[in-house]
């Protein structure tokens, strides 16, 4: 599990094809790797990956064809948001994330509003129903609060701190991003479905 509070901005330094899968080498920037163990999960732009090799400044991870088919941004050398897995003793500063991407969104608006930046994202219709005003959503692994929703598009505000400490500052109109919706919304939907199934049984 993760919180969506980015701990460092790293860099995908090499992408190696292995059939239809890939292997990544990722520079970890300022991320503290001293407590990382082989097999630990590290969230990379919202995607939970397993560290198969690591040192003080980098780690390697395999990415399957399936993961590549439902995410964006892992198959090219670029800056990425990094977060180590949550420990039970950690503060939950954002919201609970699994690192399992629900869909890929596209930036349709990115402009300054006073000291912040207004970011609007169009998401697949299949996941738009899980996004609600004042609810939580993760964009490339960053926990954010939804300000508005109109059909399949939602908006968030990025404060200067978020822009400075994540890779979101490099986005532009047309950029594609990994989206993970709030898990609570999914469970509520399933509970409602279960009740309807019981009533019709």
From TrEMBL:
InterPro entries: ATP_synth_asu-like_sf, Lumazine-bd, Lumazine-bd_dom, Riboflavin_synthase-like_b-brl. Pfam families: Lum_binding (PF00677). It is an enzyme of class 2 (transferase). Residues 1-95, 96-192 form the Lumazine-binding domain. One of its GO terms (molecular function) is riboflavin synthase activity. PROSITE patterns: LUMAZINE_BIND. Its EC number is 2.5.1.9. Catalyzes the dismutation of two molecules of 6,7-dimethyl-8-ribityllumazine, resulting in the formation of riboflavin and 5-amino-6-(D-ribitylamino)uracil. This is Riboflavin synthase. It comes from Methyloradius palustris. The lineage of its organism: Bacteria, Pseudomonadati, Pseudomonadota, Betaproteobacteria, Nitrosomonadales. The gene is ribE.
